[in-house]
Amino acid sequence: MSGDSVNRSRLEEEYIKEIVSQLQKEFGIKNKLAVPKIEKIVINVGVGEITHDKTAMEKAISSLTAITGQYPSLRKAKKAIAEFKMRQGDVVGLKITLRKKRMYQFLDKLFTIVLPRVRDFQGTKKTSFDKKGNYTLGLGEQIIFPETDYDKIDKVRGMEITIVSNTNDVKKAERLLELLGMPFEKTQKETE
Known about the structure:
The mean pLDDT is 77. This protein has helices at residues 3-6, 10-27, 54-68, 100-114, 170-180, 188-191; strands at 38-46, 73-76, 91-98, 135-139, 159-165. The chain contains 6 helices and 5 strands; from the N terminus they run H-H-E-H-E-E-H-E-E-H-H. By secondary structure, it is α+β, with helices and mostly antiparallel strands. Helix 2 (10-27) packs across helix 5 (170-180). It has a single domain (3-183), classed as Ribosomal protein L5 (50s Ribosomal Protein L5, Chain: A, 2-Layer Sandwich). Helices cover 35% and strands 17% of the residues.
């Protein structure tokens, strides 16, 4: 075993050893470098309502840091909006971009632990792809992540998770996520 494979996550190993060759066969791709892959995961959390509450903001940041293993960047308002009591420069969101090892670890946790914990979970929708093959998933609460400390939560917050792939073909991106373990909802034809 090479030293490089020691640093890879379980899902990344599976992608390299099994999924790449399977995608090559299914789509007739000759070059391994042309096989669809996940480039990054972008996680966004809106925190506009707690902009001026320093302790609540710290709790939101520490919760997201625990979930992803990475400190978020603060997204600030570009304009002042009086109706929302928001000034230009106020923090309105938190954003994290995961790549490489952390990205695969997060995906593995999302597919195998987190999504099955969602109440009344029937699978993720296949219609959430954009035209470029990127998949966006909304989660209504952060408490479904195992790293969440219930005592430190002041409010349940949702998050938007975008899985960015290097392909512009939705069918290839869908198959890639399916092979990686994304629990898509079963259609009527698939259940019969």
